[in-house]
């Protein structure tokens, strides 16, 4: 059995960002203004600060306007919702993203519900989740959208494939399963209560692992030739003089290489696709709001 090939999410994401930049340039020519993405960050969570910084940089690099709003950790929920409503009404803003997690005194469902679904580039609003479920045009959460793009790039038509999604979160697992169903896959959603997970995974032509448990999926669980998309980003405890532990996925990568047909590495697989898809969704939101055709190649 030859070793599986690496799915280069970093390169695919760079190509997508370049196509978005081309669409932004055309949009600016036609409308005279830039697509705008507003990002709200509440509090000082270090990981969230890094994510928001990366989103801002990528937004500006493709030629869009970035509006950043930082609110203190103890901001009242009503103030946050008032800001969301102001951004809903702001014609310069095409997309709104509220960085999660929010502090515990804030009900994230109430905040997401306040976002205009037409500006919900994260695809978290129940209107977009519902549209995805019934097969209508929807904003789809960025991580599963990126995973689907990588799968279609590998396999072309996904019709009839057995797909197993491990994880049932609203942000990744559930929308991933909906997307695969939309591509005519036979979809199984596995989770922490699933019995005989190894047997379930063994039947899969496509495995999407999004559980958040380091190296949980073992190589010998995989059917030979399976396409493996690893959404997990887990930091191991430091070993032998390391300052920080290694980053690993939800799949035991070295083992999986001997079985999978192709696999995403961690880092450099799914991660870079998330921001690229956020820019893609913002470009689509701006085009729809301006009454323009869907941008090509996105
Ligand atoms: N926190 C971690 N990932 C995400 C994401 O994709 N969107 C938002 N809004 N918050 C996040």
Key words describing this protein structure:
298 residues, 11 strands, binds guanine, alpha/beta, six-stranded parallel beta sheet, 2 domains, Rossmann fold
Largest sheet: 6 strands, parallel
Which descriptor suits the 3D outline? globular
Instruction: Determine the mean pLDDT.
Output: 97
Element pattern in H and E: EHEHEHEHHHEHEHEEEEHEH
Topology diagram in text:
Blueprint (H helix, E strand, L loop, with lengths): L4 E2 L2 H23 L4 E7 L3 H16 L3 E7 L5 H13 L5 E4 L9 H7 L11 H8 L8 H14 L6 E5 L6 H10 L3 E5 L6 H6 L3 E4 L17 E4 L3 E2 L11 E2 L4 H5 L4 E2 L7 H19 L9
Parallel strand pairs: 1-11, 2-3, 2-4, 5-6, 5-7, 7-8, 8-11
Antiparallel strand pairs: 9-10
């Amino acid at each position: 059995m030859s070793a599986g090939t690496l799915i280069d999410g970093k390169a695919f994401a760079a190509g997508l960002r370049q196509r978005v930049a081309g669409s932004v340039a055309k949009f600016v020519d036609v409308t005279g203004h830039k697509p705008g993405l507003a990002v709200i960050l509440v509090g000082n969570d270090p990981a969230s600060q890094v994510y928001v910084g990366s989103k801002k940089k990528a937004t500006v690099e493709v030629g869009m306007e970035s509006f950043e709003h930082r609110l203190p950790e103890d901001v009242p929920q009503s103030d946050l919702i008032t800001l969301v409503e102001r951004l809903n009404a702001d014609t310069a803003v095409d997309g709104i993203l509220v960085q999660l997690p929010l502090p515990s005194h804030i009900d994230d469902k109430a905040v997401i519900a306040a976002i205009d679904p037409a500006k919900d580039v994260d695809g978290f609003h129940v209107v977009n989740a519902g549209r995805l479920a019934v097969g209508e045009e929807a904003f789809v959460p960025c991580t599963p959208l990126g995973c689907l793009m990588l799968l279609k790039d590998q396999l072309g038509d996904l019709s009839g494939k057995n797909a197993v999604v491990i994880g049932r979160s609203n942000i990744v697992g559930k929308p991933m399963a909906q997307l695969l169903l939309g591509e005519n896959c036979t979809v199984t959603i596995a989770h922490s209560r699933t019995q005989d997970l190894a047997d379930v995974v063994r039947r899969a032509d496509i495995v999407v692992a999004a559980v958040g448990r380091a190296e949980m999926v073992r190589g010998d669980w995989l059917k030979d030739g399976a396409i493996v998309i690893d959404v997990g980003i887990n930091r191991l405890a430091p070993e032998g003089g390391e300052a920080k532990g290694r980053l690993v996925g939800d799949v035991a990568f070295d083992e999986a290489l001997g079985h999978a047909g192709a696999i995403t590495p961690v880092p450099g697989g799914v991660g870079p696709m998330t921001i690229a898809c956020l820019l893609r969704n913002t470009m689509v939101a701006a085009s729809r709001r301006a009454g323009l055709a869907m941008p090509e190649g996105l």
